[in-house]
Amino acid sequence: MARPPVAVTCGEPAGIGPEIAVKAWEVLGTDLPFVWIGDYHHLPKGTSVIPLDHAQDAAAASKHGLPVLYSQFEGERTYGVANPAHAAEVIDAIDRAVWLCKVGAASSIVTGPINKKALKDGADFAHPGHTEFLAELGGVEDVVMMLAGPNLRVVPATIHIALAEVPHALTSEGLETCLRITHAGLRSDFGIEAPRIAVAGLNPHAGEGGTMGLEDGALIAPVVDKLRAEGWEISGPLPADTMFHEAARAGYDAAVCMYHDQALIPIKTLDFDRGVNVTLGLPFVRTSPDHGTAFDIAGKGIADPTSMIEAIKLADQMARMREAALA
Hints:
alpha/beta, Isopropylmalate Dehydrogenase, 2 domains, twelve-stranded mixed β-sheet, 11 helices, 12 strands, 37% helix, PdxA_fam, metal-binding, pyridoxine biosynthesis
């Protein structure tokens, strides 16, 4: 029996998601079969489409075209303009992918980029984004966002909040939970038996003994010390400005940072096209290309599929690692 395929959701039809899915199939072909969930009328003209009734048939179908689990969307699709009438079907594609994983018909999920405003306007989507919705579908409360590339893995302890809110949002309990999920994910999904984690400080020079802020010594250091006492290979709080050069990166498997840009600037500098968004802590594997809908270039045939390709490859690798760990 063929291995269950990766399930790739359509994302926002007016963006580049459908286009880069086709380009990914052209590159990966039968080497790494996946099934695309969406309305095949939204795919680029001329795409060879193989409609499926069952995701498990994707391996055989991928020899002849892009395997698709069809979902009929209401309303017109105009490139670059999100249509709220599509919201329910976009959400359903995500739900369907999760169900496929739960019943063993898909090995993992790759989500195409969505437009959150269109989902809210069209279907009262109450979640800040994919991650929170997937956590609800997976029945878990705490998940972690990791950005992974060939040269670096980073985890922001706080994500989409204003910089002024970060010191108030950081808590010992929240940081410890983030670190524990990261540690477990590195073991189960990346096959790293004894993960090495570097923890960035919040303030310049990690507070420099309290002269540039007290959070590093009062909040971050005790959590790091606690986990080190449990036998973890963990360091920090470290000055963020010296954490990401080549020699420093060789000393850890993932860096946990205190806020969004502290984590994302280095990985997007090092691995802009090949970065992948990973959600750790879910009962299924989920990745996503590390970019948005790119409305400005949608439909022009110039979107770079590299991040989508890397997301599919990483989802497959993580699923295999997780299966091996459970064997």
